[in-house]
Amino acid sequence: MTIEIRTMQLGDEPTIEDICYVTSPWGRDGKQELYHTVALRWAVHYVRHETEHCHVAIDTEEQDRVVGYLLCAPDTLRYDEEYEELTHPLLKASLKEAAKNPVHRAKLAAEFSVFPVSKMGPKVKKLVEDFPAHIHIDIYPSHHRRGIGRMLFAAHEAHLKEIGCPGYHLGVGASNERAVKFYKALGMTDAIHQVGSIMFTKPIP
Q1: How confident is the model over 137-147, as pLDDT tens digits?
Q2: Residue 166 · residue 130 · CB < 8 Å
């Protein structure tokens, strides 16, 4: 296996959508009706509107197949505004299509809730001010534990330094011990502990 990292391209969207779904709780449960919905919530906006700030890992021994990604928005406040205008309406329409039953639709709407920084507390707002970029990273399970995450983060941090971004943050489930350990090993600080989750930060020197 030979892995290379490159900047994301618009043509990567179908594979990004698949990785996002496969690695999500809904993908693990096999809920195919939510295939596109999951990506609309957590991936599609980056592919279409933050393309130059995102990176993918390709396996050159599998015809350059994309096997993982790191999605980034260098300005979270701008991202929130643009997501609300451009992508949130698509997500709402997808949820409506996926769940005809009003009760089921309400349950899904809660699971796919969007929480912009403007609706969060002062600690989070200050964190985003100091570490304005945010990221999502996912890798196909078949390619876990092969150093791909570190390669993606290296490319990501080099890009943020190049564009003059002072730092980034990410969120992770508090029970995800492997991810928490990995982020700490990359030099991140567990800055805010919330109910069931942790927000990590890292400055870009």
Answers
A1: 999 999 999 99
A2: yes
